[in-house]
Structure formats: structure tokens, C-alpha cells
Specification:
This protein has 276 residues and is of the alpha+beta class. It is 38% helix and 12% strand. It has 9 helices and 5 strands; from the N terminus they run E-E-H-H-H-H-H-E-E-E-H-H-H-H. The strands form 2 sheets. Strands 4-3-5 form a 3-stranded antiparallel β-sheet. The chain has a two-stranded antiparallel sheet with strand order 1-2. Helix 2 crosses helix 3 and helix 5 packs antiparallel against helix 7. The longest helix has 23 residues. It is globular and about 50 Å long. The two termini are 37 Å apart. The chain binds fe (ii) ion. Fe (ii) ion binds next to helix 1. Keywords: Metal-binding, Oxidoreductase. It holds the Pfam family Sod_Fe_C. InterPro entries: Mn/Fe_SOD (IPR001189), Mn/Fe_SOD_BS (IPR019833), Mn/Fe_SOD_C (IPR019832), Mn/Fe_SOD_N (IPR019831), Mn/Fe_SOD_N_sf (IPR036324), SOD_C_sf (IPR036314). Belongs to the iron/manganese superoxide dismutase family. Its cofactor is Fe cation.
């Protein structure tokens, strides 16, 4: 599978130090000595952390070929085309790009593609082969603390997904200030990082996510996600990372969860998670 689009002639200082997913190319120069004509920022199409048939029979290989291989790829390619026209947004991480292009509620043309790349990268990580069932003890305790019971959480998540009008996403997030879990829904490409929530998992409720396998049966799609696909392992890793890292990076799909534990600042108030 094609993953990265880039050819790098030389490195250029970026706005953020952690930009392994981002490469930059200046056309017309291989050593920096010639006149620079254009600056282009390329974002790669991230591969799901399993084979495209890895979620069968609950999400078919054909569905992933279309959803990841066509729709997600299209968002990446369209974003790169947009970014290639200007260097104003050059050098941003994907988090920074989503926030910058949202432009305080007056989105720039690049916003929808940038946010959909972010959302889909996170979505693939929110599922796993053999997923579903119940979260592990530490996450389960936090869910029971914040929702009353796992059954209540599940009902809330399903109800929120099915009440979403049109296209969008349903999320389990950590409220940064309140330090509690919550279920939220967003329309179109909107991402909760825009109001500083920390995503823990998400579910794609765009029609392209379910029509091949479930036609218009959204209820079956959502219940199948909860029963057989959701990655509580990834959710638990992210929540643990939130306990011991900067909240800024604790969800980033471009940074492996295992790498997050080494960050330094604390997000306090999740004592029920630590040590589990
Ligand atoms: Fe999608």
C-alpha cells in the first residue's frame, strides 16, 4: 500500500519538533543553492494498523478498500493539492493544521480535508481485530465513574451515534478541564480537539463508512462496532498516556501510543487510571 507521497530534497526547520509524518520539498532546488520557486507540504496516507481484511466479517475488505483506499486517500491527496498552492500553512503538525485552518470558526478551504485526514487516521486506530467486548479494568472503572455503568455508557454512545443528523462522528473524549470522560458528536469533519477535548476513540458516521456492509442499517453498524470492533486496548493506552503526558500529545494518531509515555508533564485527576 502506498503510504507516503514525499520526496525530500533537504530538511527545513519546522514549526514543531515532532513532525516525522511531514516532509517538505522545494521545487527547483536539490541543494538549496538555486532559487526557490514553491514550497510544498506533503502529508502521507497512514495505513491502518491491520490488514484490510483484518476486521472481517464485521467490516469487509471491500469496505476498507473503498473507505480507506478511496475516501481517506482522497482527503489526503486533496489536502496536499491545496497546500501545494501556498506556503502559509507550511510546517504544521496535523493537530496544528486542523486548529489553524478552523480559523476560530471561519474555516479556511483546507480545513475539511485536514480534519478528515485526522479523523480517519484516528478511526482506524479505534478498531482492532478481535475488538469489542468490555474495556480493561482501569478504563472500565473510569467509564463506570463517569457514566454510572458500562451499560449506560454503551447506551449513550449508541444513542448519540444514531441521533446524529447527516454526516459526522461520535467520540469518546476526555474533558481536559473536568477530567472526565464524555460522549460527543460532531457534524461533517469537526473534531473535538477544536474545543480542547482529548479524543479517546471515534466512530465514523458518514454514509461511506457503512453503506457497503450495512446499507442504511446504521443501528447494526453501530452495535457491531461496539460488540466486535472497538479497540479498548487503544482507548486504554490513550487514557494512560493522558495520565502521564502532556495532554497536547496524548491522542495524536501520528505518534505511536507507546512513544507517548516518555513525555514529561502531568494531567492530574485520573488517579483511578494510574497503576492499573
Ligand atoms: Fe470516513
Amino acid at each position: 500500500m502506498a503510504c507516503h507521497l514525499l520526496v525530500t530534497d533537504f530538511a527545513i526547520p519546522l514549526k514543531s519538533p515532532n513532525l516525522s509524518h511531514l516532509r517538505l520539498q522545494r521545487k527547483g532546488s536539490s541543494n538549496g543553492s538555486q532559487k526557490v520557486s514553491t514550497t510544498v507540504a506533503y502529508y502521507g496516507l497512514k495505513t491502518p494498523p491491520y490488514n484490510l481484511d483484518g476486521l472481517e466479517p464485521y467490516m469487509s475488505k471491500r469496505a476498507l478498500e473503498v473507505h480507506w483506499g478511496v475516501h481517506h486517500r482522497g482527503f489526503v491527496e486533496d489536502l496536499n493539492k491545496q497546500l501545494g498552492k501556498s506556503d502559509i500553512l507550511y510546517g504544521y503538525t496535523m493537530d496544528e493544521l486542523v486548529k489553524a485552518t478552523y480559523n476560530n470558526g471561519n474555516p479556511l478551504p483546507e480545513f475539511n480535508n485536514a480534519a478528515e485526514v485526522w479523523n480517519h487516521d484516528f478511526f482506524w486506530e479505534s478498531m482492532q481485530p478481535g475488538g469489542g467486548d468490555m474495556p480493561k479494568l482501569g478504563l472500565l472503572e473510569q467509564i463506570e465513574k463517569d457514566f454510572g455503568s458500562f451499560t449506560n455508557f454503551r447506551e449513550k454512545f449508541v444513542e448519540t451515534a444514531l441521533s446524529l443528523f447527516g454526516s459526522g462522528w461520535v467520540w469518546l473524549v476526555l474533558k481536559r478541564q473536568e477530567k472526565r470522560l464524555a460522549v460527543v458528536k460532531t457534524s461533517n469533519s469537526i473534531n473535538p480537539i477544536l474545543w480542547d477535548d482529548i479524543p479517546i476513540l471515534n466512530l465514523d458516521m458518514w454514509e461511506h463508512a457503512y453503506y457497503l456492509d450495512y446499507r442504511n442499517d446504521k443501528a447494526k453498524y453501530v452495535s457491531t462496532f461496539m460488540n466486535y470492533l472497538v479497540s479498548w486496548n487503544a482507548a486504554m493506552d490513550l487514557l494512560k498516556a493522558c495520565k502521564v503526558t502532556t495532554a497536547h500529545v496524548c491522542r495524536a494518531p501520528y505518534v505511536g501510543v507507546s512513544n507517548l509515555i516518555s513525555a514529561s508533564l502531568n494531567v492530574t485527576g485520573l488517579e483511578s487510571i494510574i497503576g492499573k
